[in-house]
Amino acid sequence: MDDRRFLSRLVLSALAAAVVGIAWQAGPSIIESMLTPPPQPRQVDPRPDLPSDERSVIETFQAARESVVFITTSSRVIDPWSRRSTEVPRGTGSGFVWDAQGHVITNNHVIAGADGALVQLADGETYQARLVGTDPAHDLAVLRIEGGDAPPLLLGRSADIQVGQKVLAIGNPFGLDWTLTTGVVSALDREFPGEGRRTLRGLIQTDAAINPGNSGGPLLDSAGRLIGVNTAIFSPSGGSAGIGFAVPVDVVNRVVPQLIEHGRYTPPALGIDYDQRINELARRQGLAGVVVLGVVPGSGAERAGLEPARFTADGRLVPGDIVVGVGGSPVVTSEDLLVALDTHEPGDQVEIELLRNGRQHSVTVALEGPA
């Protein structure tokens, strides 16, 4: 063989070996790229129709979203040098549109102590809110905005809801606006400590995630109707632990009209005067119930013939009637009396159980409304 031809073949063989060696050391990807076409995006598998329960949740959220609002509160701070006041952010919460007049419902604790509030609608528009009324006993408040065309939420009932029903909560947890969470009604008629020494009673318990910022937002049933106002959580960590509480809508529907008309809520009255300290003293003497100290002239209690206590010349209290039951609910303390009355409407004819001279009897009393 010719020496030059042999030398050329030797050089080509060496080059080929070098190329293969480099490719092998660089990894199989280079070899694969030399032998296969470049990778392409995978083909997307067509999705079947959403299940009916998912479609229902989506439709319910979309219908209710426009009625939920984002509330930002502020406080007025006065500069000690210039004496000028400045509005500074205070907190955030949730709420919802109540009627076509621009009334917005939220929790009392969302706006308590604030000097101003802004209400942002789902369309992004923001309005200055005016405080209309508050009810700390039920942790409810009413604001009003001028403008906007957000629709009111559909109104449901809480008296007939059942444990196990599906529920949806919409709000602004940690400032994350218009967040949806879902769950079920976990329990009914729960109690939870409110602000001060008040106890919130008759609450709906749910496992739908409720976090700081959800307060004042709506709890909806699967038909998108309002059944409660999210108000509190039980959580060692401060975040959602799956135990949230809502004020029932039947309470909201009873309280809000008074807040709009009077700025405050007054539960139906029996037409009697009483004193918690006297009740405590009577209880130490073995007399449980609310001691009637006075009867309001012209009231249902007077018409029903309730007898007030009297004092003897030496200052001793001689009990007349002691209220021990209202509408079938036992009454031991003055708080029991208020809670029992709060389940009724002004004008209702309610059976009152009384203890007089050691004997129990009952009368029917027409409850009074706010003055």
Observed structural traits:
elongated, 23% helix, 8 helices, hydrolase, 371 residues, Thrombin, subunit H, alpha+beta, Putative periplasmic serine endoprotease DegP-like, six-stranded antiparallel beta barrel, 4 domains
Give an account of the 3D structure:
With 371 residues, the protein is α+β, with helices and mostly antiparallel strands. The protein contains eight helices and 22 strands. A hairpin with a 2-residue loop joins strand 21 and strand 22 (359-366). This is Putative periplasmic serine endoprotease DegP-like.
Write the layout of secondary structure elements.
Layout: H1 3-26, H2 28-35, H3 52-65, E1 68-78, E2 85-97, E3 103-106, H4 108-111, E4 116-120, E5 126-135, E6 140-145, E7 154-155, E8 166-171, E9 179-193, E10 199-206, E11 218-221, E12 225-233, E13 244-248, H5 249-262, E14 272-273, H6 276-284, E15 290-291, E16 294-295, H7 300-303, E17 310-311, E18 317-318, E19 321-326, E20 329-330, H8 334-342, E21 349-356, E22 359-366
Helix pairs in contact: 1-2
